[in-house]
Amino acid sequence: MATADIHITEGGHDHDHDHHGNFWTTYVFSTDHKMIAKQYLLTGIFWALIGGTLSVIFRLQLGFPDADISWLEPLLGKWITEQGKLDPEFYLALVTMHGTIMVFFVLTAGLSGTFSNFLIPLQIGARDMASGFMNMLSYWAFFLSSVVMFISLFIETGPASGGWVIYPPLSALPQAVSGSGLGMTLWLVAMALFIVSQLLGGVNYIATVINMRTHGMSFSKLPLTIWAFFLTAVIGLLSFPVLLSAALLLIFDRSFGTSFYLSDIYIGGEALPNQGGSPVLFQHLFWFLGHPEVYIVLLPALGITSEVVATNSRKPIFGYKAMVGSMLFIAILSFVVWAHHMFVSGMNPFLGSVFMLLTLIIAVPSAVKVFNYLTTLWRGNLRFTPAMLFAIGLVSFFISGGLTGIFLGNSAIDIQLHDTYFVVAHFHLVMGSASFFGMMCGIYHWFPKMFGRMMDNRLGYIHFWLTFAGVYMVFFPMHYIGIAGYPRRYYSFTNFDTLNSFSDLNMFVSIAAIITFSAQVIFIFNFFHSIWRGRKATANPWESNTLEWTTPVVPGHGNWPGEIPKVYRWPYDYSKPGSKEDFIPQHIPFSMTPESNLPHENEMIKLEKEEGVNVVVVDDRKGH
Amino acid sequence: MEMTSDFKIIEEPKKTLSMHPQKFALWLFMITVVMVFAALTSAYIVRQAEGNWLVFELPQTFWYSTALIAVSSITMHWAYLAAKKDNLDMVKVAIIITTILGLLFTAAQYHGWKVLAEEGYHFVGNNVSVSFLIVLVGLHVVHLVSGMIVLLVSLVSTFKYKVHSKNLNRLQMCMTYWHFLGGLWIYLFIFLLLNHN
């Protein structure tokens, strides 16, 4: 009997006291998943501000093509022409960098990096990631990549300008546009580092979810957030190496003179030596990453909001297995639809119809997810926290942006719509804004666990409504502009008679974009002010079921001061009939809730304790 | 942990499935390498189907290098079996032979490139089929160099008595990676032989 007790507390002592490192090991070269998550978050916010600023500058050009913007000269220098206009080549650089930054640096690194790192160990009941060191390397590879990309914004020839998809020959030949010189080289270096960072992170996420779950945390008891992060990491692991291959061949074409993507090019009447390459080959390789990337961006947002919607509806998530199944299905489908980005690249129409069919099938799991969100909300005891509002906002964008995907996925209709503002409106709603709202939802919801304080609700509401209304004001009119035939990436439309009719709408969009972007200042203030001055949080402010809320208010190194809690039930026991509280956390055994157990749950109580004997839970973890 | 009969356990949750995290991470890493080569070989097929594709003889040396890497897999396995029996001297010899075979393989691949260059097939300037061959071979060699670094690390830890029958993880991972690199080359070679017309 005595020997049985010795091991029980041992696991706890290792992690009871804080490991006091110095400033560098605690805040900079930290291997703690929570600190790395915060590093990702702050870097992501920084990039979001840059990316947003770039979009405001080119929206000024699009909405007010005749305005004199020489007042921007202190910021943009020689990119403002003598006539007080934006330099047309710099306009291309702006849209390219806006896309690159938002897709990769904000919504991939900022979203997955923050929440996968923060929530995976906390929600599966692990002390840290499988490899803290690799996790640190992952952040610092991302940081280096950020530095290189940031520097490229300031070089004399300008950053990469060939669009975020960097199609050759535009991106391969410095003669094409000034940004395809040094700017493009830096872009490729930054993205290579970025891919390394994503792979290091992804390997860690997968290894952690599979190997480090606490006792009882079977896959069928995983919170949907973890399912989403896990599938996201799997998609990233399979698709980012392909982008690396594509980029490698592009680097050979650019710097060594090979002809993987280049053929029959004449510049100034003179033929280039490159023969026999195929630019469409690059498109295939790029979109084999590029399409899964959409889901790398979106799935974490869907996971986060599933969790937040269930918690704040005080109801079990509707169709847990259907939610997991549809995410799995989306993840698989994401690899077989890439060519719908290339319907007009001259591909075989039969092949086009195959990809069209596969693309339209994605509507099925997406609709399953939407209906599950709505049925979870239906007749719930809704608590409209800011996080909940952002989650509902995501559902709204997912519907309105997803519907236009059905048009675009149709290879015949795409002939009319491709490369117009209709496409821009579609993916900004369904991928950009939806994922951004998922990220905001996550920040508002897990802020108390990150910083031990609450964000201000009232500022959160103002931020939400301005952003929500703003996003629709920006992207709804864009559909009409697109149907009217406005092509994307054009510097100005004033020279085309047919494209003059919607100038006022473009102006409206630009004003709305500026308002929406300005509203983010409220968030920035709320975020930083609350870190130091916010109301002190309790350990479980949202009365939520998942394991992270069983930690101290601010979890220290190792996350739980004592033993890691064990898991007995799924994470969605909200408002269970018979239960006193309207939530039963995952670590509460069924034997403690006889009043609310269902018949099959009673059977899961294998052994009842005998009278007068204390219950001892044996810790069979290996010693540390 | 012995439990006496006085204790009863209440619905003790099951321990979740788990593997050695580093071995698991190695497998994930190998998946990413597979994806890199899957992308390149698919690109090869797609590009070849478009025509304007130069056909040339594969250098004879690739047969020898294939034999070298196959033998090196055997010696690697020999190192592992020796470690299982705590025959550390044998482990050292086997790892050194494996590394030398790896170096010979690298030299053979380089020789293959030189043979191609002498026949007038260069990375740049000829048909893209030559460029593809050189990228595939070169990228594999880059990975093989990383494998040889892993071999040297294992050798050093053998000298430090960190590899023995009770501590086989490091050598096992080294072996897995080395077999993988050998298999990868054999895949590439067969791929090149089959798609060479």
UniProtKB/TrEMBL annotation, chain A:
GO molecular function: cytochrome-c oxidase activity; heme binding
Subcellular location: Membrane
PROSITE patterns attached to this UniProt entry: COX1, COX1_CUB
Lineage top rank: taxon: Bacteria
Keywords, ordered alphabetically: Electron transport, Heme, Iron, Membrane, Metal-binding, Respiratory chain, Transmembrane, Transmembrane helix, Transport
Topology with respect to the bilayer: Multi-pass membrane protein
GO cellular component, one term: membrane
Boundaries of every Cytochrome oxidase subunit I profile domain copy: 24-568
An example Gene Ontology biological process: electron transport coupled proton transport
InterPro entries reported for this sequence: Cyt_c_oxase-like_su1_dom (IPR023616), Cyt_c_oxase-like_su1_sf (IPR036927), Cyt_C_Oxase_1 (IPR000883), Cyt_c_Oxase_su1_BS (IPR023615)
Xref: Pfam families: COX1 (PF00115)
Heme is among the record's keywords: yes
Transmembrane segments: 40-62, 90-115, 136-155, 186-212, 224-252, 285-305, 317-338, 350-375, 387-409, 421-447, 459-487, 507-528
Statement: the UniProt record of this protein carries the keyword Repeat: no
Family of the protein in this entry: Belongs to the heme-copper respiratory oxidase family.
Protein name: Cbb3-type cytochrome c oxidase subunit I
Organism for this UniProt entry: Fulvivirga sediminis
